[in-house]
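Two entries, shown back to back:
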Amino acid sequence: MIPTEEQAKALWDKYQLPERKRNHVALVAKVALSLAEKRTVNKNLLLAGALLHDIDKNIPRLPGERHPDTAVRILREEGMEEVAELVKTHSLHAILDPAICPKTLEEKLLYLADKMVKDEVIGVDARFALWNDEHLPPDVQKILDDSYPKVKELEKEIEVAKLA
């Protein structure tokens, strides 16, 4: 099942998605749909995935889960397998893992839109700069450093440099 916008937003309440994250996912959805203009994509799936990609931010993780594993589990429990599959590919580390890296256009658009948005649309370079300013643990910094060139390649593939 692919939820409507209203159904997706009802899940925000059910899973107590914090207000700041609601604003983030709504903006990611707007950017993703903007990137999807004039492209053949499943816009309903893209919208649902964007609105629900961080649904796990206020939910305890099970042992071994990391973001977005908990979101994927929740979406599957809600009967939203297609959305779960899309959400599975959006986290920063996904682009480094051939098993879960974004492959479909919907996956690529969601991944990239998420990397262009913090609390406002800031673009990939500014988003990575913010992460770099966080003084992350070495293992997380390595993921960030290894991801950046791949995200820039994706940005070029989708031709969005001028949008941010």
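entry 2 starts here
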Amino acid sequence: MTRPMRPFERSLPMQLMLAREAVMQRFRPHLNARGLTDQQWRIIRALNEAETVEIADLGRACCLHAASLSRILPKLEEDGLIARRNSKNDQRRIIVSLTAKGRRLFDEVAPESEAIYSTLAREIGPVRLDQIYSLLDEVIGILARPKKAVRSAAARVVLPVRRKKMVSRNG
């Protein structure tokens, strides 16, 4: 006899998506007021912490697929918020950085974002919020461990996306 599947609302991916959406509902109004999407802000935030970043590293850091980046980056570049150039060491690699205008936008948006974080900390409780961060870090670490390769020719091995701190590169 097979065990029944857990209820949809107790699905871990669904719970994580619902939690993310509840948090993002707090941030979206002030991002939208500046014409930014969630993904654009993620890119700006990531680039603010590094002088330059290769596109592949940026995608991993922001959890964005290459196809999504290929749609988002031209708009940010057109708006004068980022700059893209070929790497000096390898012309196939694209290096991305924030422009002065992008840094000014970050400086405008960041204080309100931090105010939202403060409100979340008050509502959730600072201790509970620290526990959430710790548990999520632990879960990510456990699930991101490399899996043993399956020897079957028909099996596909999926490598986990590793979240790592971006390293500034002056390519």
